[in-house]
TrEMBL record:
Ranges of residues in domain Mandelate racemase/muconate lactonizing enzyme C-terminal: 133-228
Protein origin, superkingdom: Bacteria
Protein's recorded name: L-rhamnonate dehydratase
One example of a Gene Ontology biological process annotation: amino acid catabolic process
UniProt xrefs under PANTHER family: ENOLASE SUPERFAMILY, MANDELATE RACEMASE (PTHR13794), MITOCHONDRIAL ENOLASE SUPERFAMILY MEMBER 1 (PTHR13794:SF58)
Cofactors named for this entry: Mg(2+)
The keyword rRNA-binding is annotated on this UniProt entry: no
Pfam families assigned to the protein according to its UniProt record, in alphabetical order: MR_MLE_C (PF13378), MR_MLE_N (PF02746)
Keyword Magnesium: yes
MF terms (GO), sorted A to Z: L-rhamnonate dehydratase activity; magnesium ion binding
UniProt signal peptide: none
Name of the encoding gene: rhmD_2
E.C. designation(s): 4.2.1.90
The species this protein was found in: Gimesia fumaroli
Gene3D superfamilies per UniProt: Enolase-like C-terminal domain, Enolase-like, N-terminal domain
Length: 345
């Protein structure tokens, strides 16, 4: 089997981000082969990510055997090393890697969960992310809920945050998990203080209180936070996660498979974290790209609900009564309306 073309588009759906300047400007990568099979993956970086795919990665992949995923990953990483390593180039590479995995599953006529040693059909518990505690009045059935404080996490809004967290706990009741996402807007001092104030609300984790580059700060939080720390949503490659795991800087690791280097890297992260006894809870885990790894590799699976703009990825399983399960369709098991998708770009 040989790769005959590599295509990338940024599909537009209802609620799509306006352009590439958010981490969520997702791109669809399609890899065609001479056997007639096409693999699909989603990466990040929007138009900038598409440019990396079309001008660097495509040239490297044409004529190559798509089954040599690990070798191709290393070559793509090397080809983007001078301007890549983290950020847009690795987000683009992630989409290509996922498309190669989709091809492998389709070629072997197996769902990826089976190739990774698991089985389709297992019910995976989910947690729902909300941006306003009021949303929790009308949602139920999930194993947990995460209050995203991105809009109010600025300095000076501490009382507002604390009361929102307390309100969230009272709305969901005593049993479900409750998490808090600070979206890189706190510092060490405020995280320690807030963790002490919210510990009585039984918070499962505080997510990304600091910049992912502030490893010194995370070393302090590891010792002094009253609530476990989660992170990794904005980290890239298994090498970087290897350091987080080795130093146990996060109790919960949250790689985003569409950004961190694809399934190739997520598998390595799971292997390292499982060995170290740390939890992996992939960002947007209910979206299909991470769900196969969660179902096959996670000893304590918990999938975060997906984002509403990914409506163009047809065939994704839906959350039902708080759980989600994979079909037995080959590869990622998706159904693309290719003609419509590629005509609009
Ligand atoms: Mg987050």
């Amino acid at each position: 089997m040989k790769i005959t073309d590599v295509r990338a588009i940024q599909p537009v759906g209802e609620n799509s981000p306006a352009d590439w300047r958010t981490s969520l400007g997702q791109i669809l990568v399609a890899i065609d082969t001479d056997s007639g099979i096409t693999g699909y993956g989603v990466g990040g970086g929007g138009l900038a990510g598409m440019h990396v795919v079309k001008t660097v990665l495509r040239d490297l992949l044409l004529g190559r055997n798509p089954e040599e995923i690990s070798q191709l990953w290393d070559e793509m990483y090397q080809a983007t090393l001078a301007f890549g390593r983290k950020g847009i180039a690795v987000m683009a590479l992630s989409g290509v890697d996922l498309a190669l995995w989709d091809l492998r599953g389709k070629h072997e006529q197996q769902p990826l969960v089976s190739l990774l040693g698991g089985k389709p059909g297992k019910k995976i518990p989910t947690y729902r992310t909300v941006w306003d505690p009021q949303e929790l009045q009308t949602i139920s059935g999930h194993a947990g809920y995460k209050l995203h404080l991105g809009k109010v996490a600025a300095p000076g809004q501490r009382e507002l945050m604390i009361s929102a967290i307390e309100q969230a706990r009272s709305l969901i009741g005593p049993d479900p998990l409750l998490m808090v996402d600070a979206w890189m807007k706190w510092d060490v001092e405020s995280t320690i203080a807030i963790s002490q104030e919210i510990a009585s609300s039984r918070i499962e984790w505080i997510e990304e209180p600091l910049s992912p580059d502030d490893l010194a700060g995370y070393r302090l939080l590891k010792e002094q936070s009253a609530v476990p720390i989660a992170g990794g949503e904005h980290e890239f490659t298994s090498a970087a996660f290897g350091q987080l795991i080795e130093e146990q800087l996060h109790s919960v690791l949250q790689p985003d498979v569409c950004w961190c280097g694809g399934l190739t890297e997520l598998i390595k992260i799971y292997t390292m974290a499982n060995k170290a006894g740390l939890r992996v809870c992939p960002h947007r885990g209910c979206e299909i790209w991470a769900l196969h790894a969660i179902a096959a590799l996670d000893p304590d699976p918990l999938a975060e609900t997906g984002r509403p703009w990914m409506t163009w990825v047809a065939g994704q399983p839906e959350v039902k009564e708080g759980t989600i399960e994979l079909s037995d369709r080959p590869g990622f098991g998706l159904l693309f309306d290719e003609q419509n998708l590629f005509l609009v770009n």
